[in-house]
What does this fold into?
Amino acid sequence: MLTGLSFVLINSSFMLTGVFFIGSGLLFVPMYLLFKPIVKDLIKMANRSTNMKRVNKLRSAEVTAMLDLLGELDNGTHGDFGGFDSFGIESSRQLKGQINSYRAEKLSKLLGKSVSKMHLIGFAKNANYDYSMTSQDFNRFIDSNLEGFKCYWYFSKNVYINNV
It folds into this structure.
């Protein structure tokens, strides 16, 4: 039966050791093991920068996934992961050349991810660009396919995050 810390020794290598009486014997335990929970907390605090780096990598992966989704829509490609059709997004090729920075920002916010304008500047079009879809047509298309976009976004985002 362990009766508690009886006294502390400093052994030949100058390591603090706790001495416990157990029945008729003695148990010598290094002091750092006695304070292991405290040491764990200190290590967690020391790893703050490591944790912040990980959080930043996850954010970056989400932004990359969103930019790829928007790029695939603007380029008129069929999308990854079996295509947009497999996620319930019908006629996604209608959006070819229809994504500008404003529409990209609106779609990303609808999907729950805000992307900085610096990243969306790549979707800017010339002032003379002729859109085949009006803003109302674009909004109707997005609203009618919003669940499909959410499913695609969720799946795509997780693929990118798992690769971090």
